[in-house]
Design goal:
about 150 residues; three-stranded antiparallel beta sheet; about 35% strand; Type I restriction and modification enzyme subunit R-like protein; HSDR_N
């Protein structure tokens, strides 16, 4: 149904209900409609937890935020062990090419959260950067750091 992603292969609990495919979200403990973006999110979260050792308890999915009186949701917000926001991840469907628009979007979200790390992924391409708030720039990293490297 969905393309092979540029991530390790994981198994998921997928079921059919009312003509729709659902995937079980281990973090939110509920089944969700399996869209292409959700497929990327579930695989990437599993990658972060299993390969990069991010504690599942420090991940928040679809965290609400307000910008200029408009409501938005950050796809994934990672907290440090003290409960301070550490990293935002923006997910796109595999068919969506990662462009400057995705970075503009996540940068706007970061006006609220003020995290030092940003990741944008469509499951095929992953971009991670470290934010320099003083210079209002970001530097791309060669790979996604483990939780302990942040």
């Amino acid at each position: 149904m969905f393309p092979k992603l540029n991530l390790p292969t994981y198994s998921f609990r997928i079921e059919q209900q009312s003509g729709k495919k659902l995937i079980f979200d281990e973090i939110r403990k509920k089944s969700l409609v399996l869209t292409p973006e959700e497929w990327v999110r579930q695989n990437f979260i599993r990658f972060m937890v299993e390969e990069k050792k991010y504690p599942a308890s420090l991940l928040a999915i679809e965290t609400g935020l307000k910008l200029n009186r408009n409501q938005f949701r950050a796809d994934l917000l990672v907290y440090d062990r003290r409960g301070k926001p550490l990293l935002i991840v923006e997910f796109k469907a595999p068919s969506v090419k990662i462009s400057q628009l995705a970075f503009d979007q996540i940068t706007r979200y970061n006006m609220t959260f003020q995290v030092p790390y940003l990741i944008v992924s469509n499951g095929l391409s992953h971009y991670c950067c470290k934010v320099n708030p003083e210079e209002q720039t970001y530097a791309f990293l060669k790979e996604i750091p483990t939780f302990d490297q942040l």
